[in-house]
Amino acid sequence: MASKKFNYFSLLFLTLVALPIAQSTTMEARKSTGVNQFCTTASHKELCTKMVNDATNMHDATQNAILATLDLAKKIHFMSHLIEPAIATLEPISQESVRSTCKDNFENTIDDLETSLQALKDNDQGTLLTHLSASISSDCEDALKQFGVDNPLGKITVHLAKEVDNCLAVVQQI
User: Fold this and answer.
1) 8 Å CB contact between 103 and 63
2) Do 52 and 11 sit in the same domain of this protein?
3) What is the domain extent for residue 4?
4) How far apart are CA 112 and CA 106, in angstroms?
5) Global confidence as pTM
């Protein structure tokens, strides 16, 4: 009789322990459904999956992610004129300072992403990581804040930072 009680107790215990684990695994599987294999460590998995564009190898996933990010960086650079109305009330010297800082920031981001692409082609992981990391720059945002100006490109630059973060996640896959 004691062995039957033990078996029932063991079965009940295992059920209570295994059920939450199985549910957790099922929930994780649902979360991962549709996530590209190179985006599993990304902070923004769905965005990353779109960025890598069905890549099936690490090189293509990295290249696609950087190209998507570069495309967004070029759009931001093209939209930089939207800063003008935001800084219109500043003194002319302050306007020029912000304008110059933002222009440099956007151009440097593009340059860093292009250098990252070249480093990928050259199989130079150190340069790739260095320039990807450098492409996340908030110099323009900081300059605007310094003068108490809201960034009219704030939402899109936050999105750019997410894309760069995803690029770094793809590159650093183990």
Assistant:
1) no
2) no
3) 1-33
4) 10
5) 0.79
Mean of pLDDT over the chain: 87
- 7 lies in the same domain as 46: no
- For residues 44 and 113, membership in a common domain is answered with yes
Please tell me whether residues 71 and 104 are part of one structural domain. Answer: yes
pLDDT tens per residue across span 85-112: 999 999 999 999 999 999 999 999 999 9
Pinpoint the alpha helices (H) of 42-91.
45-52, 58-78, 83-87
Q: Are residues 52 and 29 in the same domain?
A: no
pLDDT in tens, 133-170: 999 989 999 999 999 999 999 999 999 999 999 999 99
Output the CA angle 147-158-124, nearest 5 degrees.
115
